[in-house]
Amino acid sequence: MTSTEKERLAFISYRRQDSAGAARWLYSALQRTYGPETVFMDVEAIRASDDWAQRIQSALSNATLLLAVIGPHWLRIADEYGRRRLDRDDDWVRSEIKHALDHRVSVIPVLLSKTPLPERAALPEPIQSLVERQAFDLRDDRWEQDISALLSTVESLGFRRRSARRSNTPGRVSLWLSLLLNKLTRRYASRRIGSS
User: Which residues are within 8 A (CB) of 153 and not within 5 positions of it... i.e. 6 or more apart?
Assistant: First the structure.
């Protein structure tokens, strides 16, 4: 890498009430494939006593890719007063996406469980151009294949896989088990919701 190249860093933007589990599995796949230093997720990277706002801002400033994880409730989640979070200037998800769009960071909307990309009119003006970015689907019934295809897309943006020496077989098995557990958990949750 030359001195003028920027280190690759993927920033995972998500809502905990909407997609915390899927975001963690995505984080696991990315850090196992490209290394832990190449991906940022708040609950994984911010330690006790850290200035969390400063850590998020620092990661955003260094990010070369933002993955906006969008589940079925992402657009409608509200605060304790019933106000939609996306409509608040201090909403972190809104701020993360706005920063990436304003600074020409690569942005991939990652759509979960066949969630449609929000319409332009449904988004606050500062992040409406999100709808112009090519989205990527992560489907429950094709999770492993979709993750593999997403990793290929990430590689096309300059991310490099860890060497074969470091990416060992136990790591691959652990990732496979994690993806399988995620699939089973999501399927169980959808059945519970359907039966309630």
Answer: 108, 136
Which residues have CB under 8 Å from 78's CB, separation 6+?
Answer: 84, 85
Report the pLDDT value the prediction gives residue 55, as an integer from 0 to 100. Answer: 87
- What is the rounded average pLDDT for all residues in the chain? 85
Which tokens is 105 given? 């960071």
Do residues 69 and 146 touch, judged by C-beta distance below 8 A? no
Residue type, 19: S
Considering the entire predicted model, what is its pTM? 0.80
Which of 36-50, 100-114, 146-160 bottoms out in mean pLDDT, i.e. has the lowest?
36-50
* Measured distance CA(136)–CA(111) in Å, rounded: 6
pLDDT tens digits, one per residue of 144-155: 999 999 999 999
Are the CB atoms for 97 and 120 separated by under 8 Å? Answer: no
Q: For 85-103, write each residue's pLDDT tens digit.
A: 999 999 999 999 999 999 9
CA distances (Å), origin 37, targets 17, 24, 31, 162, 172:
26, 15, 7, 11, 18
Cβ atoms within 10 Å of 188's Cβ, excluding its own? 10
Single out the residue of 155, 138, 190 nearest to residue 25, CA to CA: 138
Q: How far is CA 20 from CA 12, 25, 95, in A?
A: 11, 9, 18
E strands in the chain: 10-13, 39-40, 65-70, 106-112, 136-138
